[in-house]
């Protein structure tokens, strides 16, 4: 049995993909979001492997030690789905349980429609399934930016956010991790206009590390990786949103019928922005929904903030799947 995390680089879908693995048994692929890395799943790698699963955590396209294509078109849904199918092929796997967080959740929600037969179940974190937007995402982003600072709009112009975040990596990561956590400060950004402000101008000041869920060594891993790579790869996922929207025209509303568990932090701003019942649409769009867990005290980075609770929910769900 694999008792330690192993690392390797695999040729996948025309890129080189860095993958961290641990354990043996039913395969579980963990897909991070922005600004994440395979390391965002460090607590799940340990716990799920100990529970008898083969846990596979890639650096997603554009991140960490995986290739960073420069063309925004390389981050559309056709490419990101092909990455996951190619990863299974490279590992000799027919199917896997997929888990996603943030942009990883956006991708994983689409996998059953795009790659039927390759997905046995989903474990989704922080981002519920929602109906298809009636307009291009960039149109919606512009509207939000007319009301208040909106990072989704700020990220669209190539080079602007790339420079700001890349030149202030440590400050940016500390501010964002804190604002999106259970401290629940992210919506402070809405107090500022878009014009004349960068992301660092509107994010609240964080307390000094260590925090109760992130120590200096763990934070240092993120800083070192993003200082080396910059943020353009991650930002390109935002810039590809119009292409993803267009490619999903005939697929987005297809019901997700594989077994699904959804896990989120009680204080996640994503849920707060979705109103009184953020799961209403998901219940209609995801007939395979088995369970929903809202973790008290946690924010957006629920798998790092409350790993024991998240791991317990995942292991319970996995244990209930058909063999």
TrEMBL record:
It comes from Rhodococcus tukisamuensis. The keyword Chloroplast does not apply. Keywords: Hydrolase. It comes from the Bacteria. PANTHER family: EPOXIDE HYDROLASE. The keyword Repeat does not apply. Pfam families: Abhydrolase_1 (PF00561). GO terms for molecular function: hydrolase activity. Residues 27-307 form the AB hydrolase-1 domain. This is Pimeloyl-ACP methyl ester carboxylesterase.
């Amino acid at each position: 049995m694999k008792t330690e995390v192993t690392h390797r680089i695999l040729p996948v879908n025309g890129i080189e993909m860095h993958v961290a693995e641990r354990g043996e048994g039913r395969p579980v692929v963990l897909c991070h979001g922005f600004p994440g890395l395979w390391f965002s799943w460090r607590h799940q790698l340990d716990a799920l492997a100990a529970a008898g699963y083969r846990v596979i955590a890639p650096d997603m396209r554009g991140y960490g030690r995986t290739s960073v294509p420069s063309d925004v078109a390389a981050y559309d849904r056709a490419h990101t789905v092909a990455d996951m199918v190619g990863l299974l092929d490279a590992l000799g796997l027919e199917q896997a349980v997929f888990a996603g967080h943030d942009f990883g959740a956006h991708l994983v929600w689409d996998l059953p429609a795009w790659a039927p037969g390759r997905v046995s179940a989903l474990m989704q974190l922080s981002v519920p399934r929602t109906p298809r937007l009636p307009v291009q995402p960039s149109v919606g982003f512009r509207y939000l930016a007319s009301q208040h600072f909106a990072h989704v709009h700020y990220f669209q112009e190539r080079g602007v956010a790339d420079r700001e975040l890349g030149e202030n990596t440590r400050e940016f990561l500390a501010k964002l991790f804190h604002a999106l956590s259970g401290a629940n400060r992210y919506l402070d950004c809405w107090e500022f206009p878009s014009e004349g402000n960068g992301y660092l101008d509107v994010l609240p000041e964080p307390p000094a590390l260590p925090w109760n869920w992130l120590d200096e060594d763990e934070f240092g891993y993120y800083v070192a990786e993003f200082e080396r790579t910059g943020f353009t790869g991650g930002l390109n996922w935002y810039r590809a949103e119009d292409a993803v929207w267009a490619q999903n025209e005939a697929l987005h509303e297809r019901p997700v019928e594989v077994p699904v568990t959804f896990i989120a932090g009680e204080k996640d701003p994503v849920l707060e922005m979705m109103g009184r019942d953020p799961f209403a649409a998901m219940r209609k769009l995801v007939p395979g929904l088995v369970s929903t867990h809202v973790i008290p005290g946690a924010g957006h980075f629920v798998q790092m903030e409350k790993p024991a609770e998240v791991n317990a929910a995942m292991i319970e769900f996995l244990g209930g799947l058909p063999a």
